[in-house]
Every structure is written in C-alpha cells, then in structure tokens.
Amino acid sequence: QVQLVESGGGLVQPGGSLRLSCQASGSIFSINSVGWYRQAPGKQRELVATISSSGSTNYADSVKGRFTISRVNAKNTLYLYLQMNSLKPEDTAVYYCNAYLIWPIHKNSWGQGTQVTVSS
Question: Per-residue b/e over 54-78, b at no fewer than 16 CB within 10 Å?
C-alpha cells in the first residue's frame, strides 16, 4: 500500500508560478510510475504529467514548456514535484498526485488533492 500526500497549492496571479509537492510512503518499491492529474469543476480528471522509474517524462500538450515534473527517490520515501510556470486561469483545478502500482496488483493510488487557483 502507498500513501500520497500533496502540498503546495494556492492562489496565484496569471503568469505566476507554483510548485506542487507529493510525498509517497509505504510500499514504494511497488511504484512503476508517478504523475500529476487535475480536475477542474464540471470536467473530467485529466493527465498533466507523468514520470517513469527511469525518468522518462510525458506532458499534456496544454502544459508543455510551462510545467516540469521531477522525482527524488529516498530510502523509504519518494518525492514528486511539479513546477508550474506561466500559469493561466485555465490551469485552475484540483491537482492530484498519482502512483501506478504493479504489486501485488496493478492499480492506481491517489492523493487527496490540492487546489490551484489562477486568478487576478
């Protein structure tokens, strides 16, 4: 089992920056890839960015060039970050940390979410 805790959300003006953090603990050896997803009011949850255990990254077209995902593997903890620059009002959403687990079964694990609001 893996526990995910996000932090770093808040209110920022258009053009500003925020850095989201996620701490993963528990059976982190079972994690294949991690990433960030977001869900705006009235919309489906969508992928923002993912990063594999080898460091390969994938971004949604809407955030390419503005967001950067990174991870740091510690002894019993995995840290996931999302640096968000040049934020736009359409980036407003609840951002969720995700871990795709491959043991004992394949499944997604989610954090509780952190609100990001981009507004003047």
Answer: eeeeebeeebeeebbbebeeeeeeb
Percentage helix, strand, coil for the chain under 3-state DSSP, each rounded to 5: 5, 60, 35
Name the DSSP class of 86.
Answer: S
SS3 119: coil
110 CB-contact burial (10 Å; exposed 0-12 / middle 13-18 / buried 19+): middle
User: Tokens 């959300």 appear where?
Assistant: 9
**pLDDT of 57-76, one tens digit each?**
999 999 999 999 999 988 88
Q: How many residues does the chain have?
A: 120
